[in-house]
Amino acid sequence: MERAVFLFQDIIWVRDRIHLHNVSGIALSPEAILGLRVLQKSHKMFVFANHPDEAHEETVAEVERLQEQLPNLLARYGVCVQRLPHPATENGLCLESPLSLLSKIAEEHRIDLSNSLVISNRLSDVECAAEVGVPGIYIVGEREPQPQLVQLPNCLIATDILDAALLAMERHLSRYGEQILVDVERAAMILKDGGVVAFPTETVYGLGANALDPIAVARIFEIKGRPRFDPLIVHVAALHQVQNLVTELPEPAQALMGSFWPGPLTLVLPKSDRVPEIVTAGLPTVAVRMPDHPVALTLIRRAGVPIAAPSANRFGRVSPTTAEHVHQQLGSAVDLILDGGRCPIGVESTIISVLEDTVTLLRPGGTPLEEVERLVGPVQRRTQASAAPLAPGQLAHHYAPQTPLVLKGQELPERALRRGLLSFTVPASAEDFVAVEVLSKTGDLREAAANLFAALHRLDAMHLDVIVAELVPEVDLGLAINDRLRRAARK
Ligand code: TXA
Ligand code: MG
Known about the structure:
Layout: E1 4-8, H1 30-39, E2 44-48, H2 60-75, E3 82-83, H3 102-109, E4 117-120, H4 123-131, E5 136-139, E6 155-158, H5 161-170, H6 180-192, E7 197-199, E8 206-210, H7 214-224, E9 233-235, H8 239-245, H9 251-260, E10 265-270, H10 277-280, E11 285-289, H11 294-303, E12 307-308, H12 323-330, E13 336-337, E14 350-355, E15 358-363, H13 369-376, E16 380-381, E17 405-407, E18 419-423, E19 435-438, H14 445-460, E20 466-469, H15 478-489
Parallel strand pairs: 1-2, 1-4, 2-3, 4-5, 5-6, 7-13, 9-11, 10-14, 15-16, 17-20, 18-19, 18-20
Antiparallel strand pairs: 7-8, 8-12, 9-12, 10-11, 14-15
The structure holds threonylcarbamoyladenylate and magnesium ion.
């Protein structure tokens, strides 16, 4: 049995920007695009329309045309929805809500209704859902929630679809352990109180503090031993948070957010006065990202503030991809370590700056550059000569284990008897090595990225004289893997 969400189509597009007579002019709500992307990971998705009542400006034909177009429009953003059919119509007008068909649809599509959701900004839809035992999320937008809602059992309230998607996600957080919601709530309180919490993201574990609290942020620098000239990434779980942090959202940045958020892509944009100087190390720009990890998103949503977070390792060292790695490096220095298991991507986010429409790659990472360029065209590479302002993830020596590391083919240090090999696939011969880590037996770059830092941590713990690392093909996530290996190899 599958879970499903049934969404009222009016919450997906932005009415005051729509030109219904020119359907291609439909503007989708950015919150909807991101929210639907989150929802579709664990739900089948259906969109329903209600035929117009007095409150609506559109004709029946317009509503239907819109419903026909939505699946194609959303598909451009990688979101897949089906249309919920209308019940029988009378004179072309349907008098009953399509939600009255839910039980029938559930049977056809093998859907578990009690684990499904109706999301709408109309109270009547939420009530209708409750009648057939489907929990609802009522989208209130900026409005005050209506008092009758308190009476409705099984109904949650959200500000927009992204917010609703995060609420839906919370219901399935227990795969990270029975305790996880309690821990996340405690972590959120600590963050609100100016504390520092380590948390999982899809890339690596982060060391977070309230981005708007300079004193809390200062503790991150102390705990990491990180120089103050190295700016932090601010993590968000809502688009209004981004609007508060930046002064401009150039078109390419909006396109990138629409296609890759939540996900391993950080955007560097002109900063607003609200961002403390310590977060950006005095730069006029701020780095922002929406992580794609249920624990991280729930934490940020519940803390209610944007979270500044570098990777949760000591400065210059290998980034942590498990809670255990964080514990080993930072241990009791942090107020709490949230355990969300292994980070699925395993290398840090791709960092792209979008300043006055110039798009520049600052750090290769979990979002392949090829995919970015497919969307926004050629991206400038940062050359050493144009390296100001300093982005220390760009520091030559970084991401390094304590054991000396050389790239395969480079000269070995003297008396390097105990050697470890970090190999992309299964090596032809491993005779010269006391330890071998294979990143991906099948030569899969995503698997290799996911294993990279854990393999480095293991080799580093073996008291070897040297780690010999093999570069991987320089495409897709290979760009990020090689970047980290080259930096780890530099003195
Ligand atoms: O995947 C990630 O990005 C992880 C997770 C925790 O989100 N975070 C991470 O943070 O890798 P960190 O601090 O280890 O690396 C962030 C990089 C640094 O190299 C920093 O210099 C750069 O982002 N950065 C931050 N703000 C910047 C800005 N305004 N301009 C240029 N670079 C910036
Ligand atoms: Mg780092």
